[in-house]
From TrEMBL:
InterPro entries the record matches: DUF4209, ERMARD
Domain of life, source organism: Eukaryota
Protein's name in the database: DUF4209 domain-containing protein
PANTHER family per UniProt: ENDOPLASMIC RETICULUM MEMBRANE-ASSOCIATED RNA DEGRADATION PROTEIN (PTHR31701:SF2)
Domain DUF4209 span(s) in chain numbering: 90-144
Pfam families the UniProt entry points to: DUF4209
Amino acid sequence: YVEMGINYQESIRRLDMTILPQIEHYFDQMTIEQFRSYYDNDYYCGWLKNRKDLFRIFNLLKNNEIHLATLLLTCLTERNLGNLLLIQINTVPNLLRQIIESSTLCSILGSDLTLLFQLLIGSPKSINLRNVYWHGFIQYNEISS
């Protein structure tokens, strides 16, 4: 399915086969202390209102609390992406999907990162992690680290 120039099926397949396993491996190797020392700075996290939330989420992931970590991460992401938009424009769209489809956000973050957000938490044609978790389509016992 192609929407807004994105071939969702092919893009998600590539995410699943190449990108996500690399990200998982990278963070699996990192301790909570290493994560905190690496990301507790303005270079990587200056745009976050509250870095403590990010560290709390990583701690949940390390303790195999995937469901709760995903819910909190999508909330944190939505809020902070909205804050990024607010710097550039006077109003922020009401829906997360509209935020990540914003051309203004694309100009701030670049097309690659914006596409990643669209694939993970975007339209119903994407993986749409936020809705899958938020509406209970995935149960606690159906996921593992």
